[in-house]
Amino acid sequence: MSTPLTVRIDRAADGQLVLFATGEIDASNVADFAKALDAGIDSDADSLTVDLSAVEYLDSAAINALAPHAESLEIIANPVLMRVLMVSGLTELAKIRPAPDADS
């Protein structure tokens, strides 16, 4: 059974492409995430912002989808994801910043 995940690509007010993901990213749904990621990377943009602020969990399948594109990505991550992104080494390859805390 697939884990719930919603992905969409929009343009921010400044014209920057943003991939928004909501839910969890794991082996059961990473193909949908990777397809959206590839579509954003293959666009005419120089970089892609990946907004993971509404993602509560990701596993190595998600890291493996992000890693080949890391130098072209700016990732906004749910603070609960920061540890796994650091341990995976992705923070050394991509621009990653924690999303603002909803309680702030």
Fold blueprint:
Elements: E1 5-11, E2 17-25, H1 30-41, E3 48-58, H2 60-66, E4 73-77, H3 82-88, H4 90-93, E5 95-98
Parallel strand pairs: 2-3, 3-4, 4-5
Antiparallel strand pairs: 1-2
Helix pairs in contact: 1-2
CATH architecture identity: 2-Layer Sandwich
**How is the biggest beta sheet arranged?**
5 strands, mixed
Work out the number of β strands. Answer: 5
Rg for CA atoms: 13 Å
Strand order of the largest sheet: 1-2-3-4-5
End-to-end separation in angstroms reads 35 Å
CATH top level class name: Alpha Beta
Q: Level of helix content?
A: 25-40%
Strand content: 25-35%
Unreliable spans are: none
User: How many helical stretches?
Assistant: 4
Oligomer: single chain
Structural class: alpha/beta
Number of domains: 1
Mean pLDDT: 92
How are helices and strands ordered from N to C? EEHEHEHHE
Superfamily at the CATH H level? STAS domain
Give the CA-based shape.
globular
CATH fold assignment: Transcription Regulator spoIIAA
Pfam family, one: STAS
InterPro entries: STAS_dom, STAS_dom_sf
Organism: Mycolicibacterium sarraceniae
Protein name: STAS domain-containing protein
